[in-house]
Amino acid sequence: MFPLTEENKHVAQLLLSTGTCPRCIFRFCGVDFHAPYKLPYKELLNELQKFLETEKDELILEVPNPPLKKIRLQDLEDGIDGNDNLSQNGEGSVSVIEDGSVNSNLNICNVCLGILQEFCEKEFIKKVCQKVEASGFEFTNLVFSVSFPPQLSVREYAAWLLVKQEMGKQSLSLGRNDIVQLKEAYKWITHPLFSEELGVPIDGKSLFEVSVVFAHPETVEDCHFLRAICPDCFKPAKNKQSVFTRMAVMKALNKIKEEDFRKQFPCPPNSPKAVCTVLEIECAHGAVFVAGRYNKYSRNLPQTPWIIDGERKLESSVEELISDHLLTTFKAESFNFSSSGREDVDVRTLGNGRPFALELVNPHRVHFTSQEIKELQQKINNSSNKIQVRDLQLVTREAIGHMKEGEEEKTKTYSALIWTNKAIQKKDIDFLNDVKDLKIDQKTPLRVLHRRPLAVRTRIIHSMETRYVDEHHFRLYLKTQAGTYIKEFVHGDFGRTKPNIGSLMNVTADILELDVESVDVDWPPALDD
């Protein structure tokens, strides 16, 4: 059943005679159900001519070129109506035929510039799907986004003013919100075609995005008059190449007076000579996150690459020893490493290890069994004797918050080998075993002052336990608040940490070795080996 009524006849005739395509006519007539938009273009035009049969001869004159023989938009059953992520940035259109050429025989719509004509064709959808399949991404669903040129908002506004004026003569009204959004109509037609061609559902929450960006150089200056009338709407932004964004244009159209618009822009808009160009077809996958715990057994290995003034100081790092394998396996473009605190280059991390997480950016492979993750963990562990990884697992972005929450709240346990300048006996250190919840004030250590702000931080030494070694050495086991600078607590950092082991014992003390024995953050969950 044809979707237009007698009430729509005058508007449909007006729009068709000024160069508007059948699907845009549906939009202006408020047709908000899917099926009519999916009809083949030739059938749509024939049905529209039948509907306007009293003006049929006139119509043939005003649509001089016949519909394209190569337009074969299939009459699909109602398909997937998933959430869409179509960004309205205007519109555009290019007809991609088997050989990749652009077909210019079609009368190009003066409102959508062909978006609802040729870019709805199965040939174009196939072209996009070929790019998707060649991209090498793993996906089980997708979100499809389109970026249209912003001048299409101007053209739609001009056509609306024309229709509004004509309807006013019949005491009828048409609000801008009564027009079906171009993105909606495009979604209704293309989503089922994409889903059918790729064999996966369209899902607005999918991490895999296929995006198409259109441009229309011929009409790029359509928006420029708006800047002169509404300069406040067009302010340069660092991340935008042009001030004429869709949002800026929409803001100006909401602000401009209708009479000012009519003086500056033709209503109806002129028919274009050329169709749009496709600037890019891109595929991207949202980041995936891998977490685990690492042990560091080397006293000559930084946590992250140690580069000063562009010169690498040490050949590797914990971050690189782990990430190199993950980047390769997930086929990711890049990564971001984070952990629950960090140890110095000469400090070992023992016990259950330190929690860490990697964000893998734009991964091409994302589906792994638990056995494959175990094998990946083993591969990392076999590649170096400087580190070991445990509890490797896929996690969500939200779960990483648990690791960061624990950084300041949780406790950490250390073991330190301490030297004293004065000879000591066991009784000289026994009193430290009885010290509980000692509050210390630490000025930012001199060794990190170049990268941390100057501040005094209060920290708590929860407990200490000593083991006598000889008259100049003893081992100290400490349980402290996270964020405590242990080396400075031992030697005092020229009086910047008070009290300290040296002041408590009335000696000059220094630290020879330090190990992290445990990081008490219950994340990520322990896995059975």
From TrEMBL:
Report a single Gene Ontology molecular function: tRNA pseudouridine(55) synthase activity
Give the reactions, separated by semicolons, that this protein catalyses.
uridine(55) in tRNA = pseudouridine(55) in tRNA; uridine(54) in tRNA = pseudouridine(54) in tRNA
InterPro entries, A to Z: PsdUridine_synth_cat_dom_sf, Pus10-like, Pus10-like_C, Pus10_N_euk
Q: Which residues form the Pus10-like C-terminal domain?
A: 289-520
- E.C. number, please? 5.4.99.25
Q: Which GO terms describe its biological process?
A: primary miRNA processing; tRNA pseudouridine synthesis
> Record keywords: Coiled coil included?
yes
What interactions and quaternary structure are annotated? Interacts with components of the microprocessor complex DROSHA and DGCR8.
| Protein name as annotated | tRNA pseudouridine synthase Pus10
Species in which this protein is naturally found = Equus asinus (Donkey)
